[in-house]
Design a protein that fits this description.
With 472 residues, chain A is mainly alpha-helical. Chain A is built from 27 helices and 4 strands. Among the domains of chain A are: 214-248 and 258-295, no CATH class; 359-472, no CATH class. Classes of the chains: A mainly alpha (472), B alpha/beta (409).
Chain lengths: 472, 409
């Protein structure tokens, strides 16, 4: 829906529901509908009992608790499960060491060597993914998990590229997760200096006289300002020069867990002209200065506010909301929690128009299905397989722009039939009454009626594969 | 597979909901509105065109690329001579027979007139065919479906892969099928009880009903066409995974289902900022399955290849100079590949200006001397027989024709 028609329907709705008072507040969701809505947006959909719990505590209190999740304890079963996944517990240097050891055996073609290589790679992959999926399904800090998905995707790295694979767990744990409600500048710096990003976008190779523009371009285009926001090819090149020497040495990372090093010998010590500024040679401080400027730039504020509003409200987010969020961004110097507060407190977010407006991404679909059926996802491999087939492999987006989250990107004939197929598999042994109770009013009366009139043994599959469950 | 084998297979599979009758095979000449085929392969990430079709004969080429230039023809891993000046990447050797048969042409220094070096904007422009205009709601292949004569089924345009690309998005129905062997296999909705149940949930649904229904119909068609083939026991060696496999499957589908007129593939992994290699290495490893797959597609289409045009394109080219890491950064002009029975091939076309210092765009990459839309429009006009007014719908605000002679007809 275009912004204009969104507004038109808002006005129409307001007129219908609040006529004739011209200045009446826009209609807002309430009761169980409101609870289901926030669970579909701040969480990966309702699990059994969630709608009642959120209705009882009130939507505002729920939002507040999700924005300050420190007091929400992880269930013991989840903590134990995470503790058993050594890939996500160990340092990036240790995991990289394992990876490089088997990779260097690549010429040893004995069966033992091959088996060991397979085992190490599979352990790294599966444990990294299992930690992500287990948390997404079972953590009470649902918004934190939603934000980990959002920000990882915003600062995407592709695990299929060289040394990125063993570094993904650390990247998420050390460069993304600690900052998802914090200062954007901190997260920007943590990603810029993480070996996964340094490797993925090649900045670790870039040096004076041997420039690599890859990271500098995506830093402005994707991570901060947004495309076409007034910078030129020259600005890209100059920023790449400022960032020369930002690097890591795999051997030092393995030996001493040195995740970042600024190498003055590789740094370009000339003057730079970047975004209309003259930057005098100051070593690492030039790159830090660039991140300072970019993090609070009004273009960055608008770009990321738009992305957040698109993720949480509608594919074409209301421009006035984006503008208010961008103002909060600038006023708070990029404090993510403040921007989210503006978003969640907005009329636009709680409008009936927003309810169910988003088409789930494959990731949101599979995680929400597990939650609705109260499945612990003991086996992650079928989940990973489903994500592959639905076109959204976990940690598998090749390109730095990450996955889109719009209906246009994900709704297609093959996707619907595959989601229905996945729902059918997942439904085995799950009681339809439990799922229906969990989903409450987010399933339409029409769908409830068709399901109730169908054979008992396919009702769960029908609910999880229904049109209602494709949206959030 | 011979036509007779197919008919036998069809007889054996009587009762399948296969949407074609005997008349589909009654004549080899072009008769149905869907008989002239178009396949587009998009290389996402900006393939290095200067190492796909390399200007070996320009002395600047090797100087610009001390560690990644292709060696001259005849040397170890050297380029394959095309016309004494340009050389083809050796990993694309499977395409040389088509070159010699004059069914493969290249258009060099082609691309989008928009100057962006953002992958994502540039791809968007190439798929909407409206460079510089982001608000265009649909892709040009979708507009093409709407414009082509004859009635369209949802299978008229098929994308291979799990998502629907921008180029096929729009008002006209189009479908996507899975990579690999899954497309022709039965799924949950082939079980009658589930089909009935989900049909009740989705048919007529305001938001998802049409997509659901298109998918259901297309799936039946695709499954019937693919099963007919497997019963005929092709006897060919198993194919490697990836593009060659998907290309061969598409050929089978197109031969067995005459409703399929257009197809789209997207392949990634071309953004070679570091260690791209020369005759061997990273880029070679990407090109090899592409070359193999295209050759296989041509071969498996059989006589249908005579009525098919295949275009390979990428959002922009890469820097003429290699960067500090044995790779190349984002550039501008690139090379388009055109294959097919009607192609006036065996030539590198386009207005080529060389890679000397004064000839590069912004001192860094190839200028765009041929707008990609003029290449596509020529195919739409001469191969798919669109009228001027239809062309204007598919390619609005297009520059005047380039005088390129790409097709024989």
């Amino acid at each position: 829906m275009s912004a204009r028609s969104w507004f038109a329907s808002m006005i129409l709705l307001a007129a219908v529901q609040a006529a004739p008072a011209a200045l009446a507040a826009p209609p807002q969701l309430s009761g169980q509908a409101a609870a289901a809505h926030v669970l579909n947006r701040l969480a990966y959909g309702p699990a059994p009992g969630d709608i009642e719990r959120v209705t009882q505590m009130g939507v505002a209190r729920y939002i507040d608790s999700q924005l300050h999740p420190e007091s929400l304890e992880l269930p013991a079963a989840l903590s134990e499960r995470l503790a058993g996944l050594d890939t996500v517990q160990r340092s990036s240097g240790e995991v990289l060491g394992d990876f490089l050891a088997v990779r260097d055996m690549v010429k040893d073609e004995t069966e033992d060597a091959k088996a060991m290589r397979r085992e190490v790679l599979a352990r790294i992959n599966n444990q990294t993914a299992e930690a992500r999926i287990a948390r997404a399904v079972a953590s009470p800090r649902q918004l934190e998990e939603v934000m980990v998905d959002f920000w990882f995707n915003h600062f995407n790295v592709f695990s299929g590229k060289g040394q990125v694979r063993p570094l993904v767990a650390s990247y998420e744990r050390d460069a993304i997760r600690p900052y998802v409600f914090g200062s954007f500048r901190d997260m920007l710096g943590a990603t810029a200096k993480h070996p996964a990003m340094l490797f993925y976008l090649d900045n670790y190779l870039s040096k004076a006289g041997g420039l690599n523009e890859n990271y500098a371009r995506e830093l402005m285009e994707l991570h901060t300002l947004g495309v076409d926001k007034g910078y030129t090819q020259k600005d890209v090149t100059e920023l790449a020069r400022m960032l020369t020497g930002w690097s890591f040495a795999p051997r030092q990372l393995v030996a001493r867990n040195e995740t970042f090093r600024f190498d003055p010998k590789r740094h370009d010590n000339g003057d730079k002209q970047w975004l209309g500024r003259v930057v005098k040679p100051q070593g690492q401080a030039e790159g830090e200065y660039a991140l300072d400027v970019l993090a609070v730039h009004p273009a960055t504020a608008r770009h990321i506010s738009y992305k957040l509003a698109q993720y949480f409200v509608a594919d074409e987010p209301p421009p006035a909301l984006v503008e208010r969020m961008a103002q909060t961004w600038v006023a708070s110097k990029g404090d993510i929690r403040s921007v989210l507060k503006t978003l969640f407190a907005s009329d636009e977010f709680m409008s009936p128009e927003a309810q169910g407006a988003k088409f789930k991404t494959p990731y949101q679909f599979v995680i929400s299905a597990a939650r609705a059926g109260n499945s612990a996802m003991a086996e992650v491999r079928p989940v990973l397989g489903a994500l592959d087939r639905l076109g959204m492999p976990l940690y598998g987006c090749q390109t730095p722009d990450g996955y889109k989250n719009t209906q246009a990107a994900w709704l297609n004939p093959d996707a619907l039939s595959r989601r229905i197929g996945y729902a059918t598999t997942l439904a085995q042994g799950v009681d339809a009454a439990v799922v229906q109770a969990a989903l409450g009013e987010s399933v339409s009366e029409r769908t409830q009626g068709v399901v109730a009139a169908s054979p008992q043994k396919i009702r769960t599959a029908m609910l999880l594969g229904s049109p209602d469950f494709m949206q959030r | 597979m011979q036509r007779r084998d197919f008919l036998n297979a069809f007889a054996a599979g009587a009762g399948l909901m296969i949407p074609l009758g005997r008349e589909a095979w009654a004549a080899t000449s072009v008769q149905r509105p869907t008989d002239r085929k178009l396949i587009v392969v998009m290389l996402r990430g900006a393939v290095d065109g200067l190492n796909v079709v390399a200007p070996i004969g320009d002395e600047n080429y090797a100087q610009l690329r001390p560690s990644i230039a292709l060696a001259a023809p005849g040397k170890d891993n050297g380029a394959l001579d095309l016309d004494g000046y340009f050389g083809l990447h050796p990993a694309l050797a499977p395409l040389m027979p088509l070159w010699r048969e004059k069914k493969l042409a290249f258009v060099h220094a082609s691309g989008s007139p928009d100057a962006t070096r953002s992958h994502f904007d540039a791809q968007d422009y190439m798929e909407s065919a409206t460079p510089g205009v982001k608000s265009t709601p649909d892709g040009w292949m979708n507009r093409l479906i709407a414009t082509l004569p004859g009635t369209s089924t949802p299978t008229r345009a098929v994308s291979v892969g799990p998502t629907m690309p921008r180029i096929l998005s729009g008002q006209a129905a189009a479908i996507n099928i899975a990579n690999g062997s899954a497309a022709g296999k039965p799924g949950a909705l082939d079980r009658p009880q589930l089909a009935t149940a989900f049909d009740q949930l989705y048919m007529g649904h305001e938001r998802f009903g049409k997509v659901y229904q298109d998918g259901r119909e297309a799936h039946k068609e695709v499954m019937a066409a693919t099963m007919a083939e497997s019963m005929a026991a092709d006897g060919g060696a198993p194919l490697p995974n990836g593009f060659p496999d998907d290309a061969a499957r598409l050929a089978v589908l197109m031969r067995n289902d005459p409703n399929v007129q257009m197809a789209f593939f997207a392949l990634g992994g071309w953004d070679t900022h570091a260690s791209q290699g020369a005759g061997t290495g990273q880029l070679a490893n990407r090109l090899a399955p592409l070359g193999q797959g295209l050759a296989l597609l041509a071969q498996k289409l059989g006589p249908m290849f005579e009525d098919t045009t295949i275009v390979v394109m990428s959002e922009f080219g890469r820097t003429a100079r290699e960067n500090g890491n044995g790779g190349t950064d984002h550039g501008h002009g690139n090379v388009m590949w055109v294959l097919g029975g009607g192609v006036a091939g065996g030539k590198v076309l386009g207005d080529w200006q060389g890679v000397g210092n004064g000839q590069l765009n912004e001192g860094r990459d190839l200028p765009v001397t041929t707008d990609f839309r003029t290449v596509l429009a020529q195919i739409a006009e001469r191969h798919l027989r669109l009228s001027d007014s239809q062309l204007a719908q598919v390619f609005p605000r297009m520059p005047s024709s380039s005088g390129l002679r790409l097709l024989r007809a």
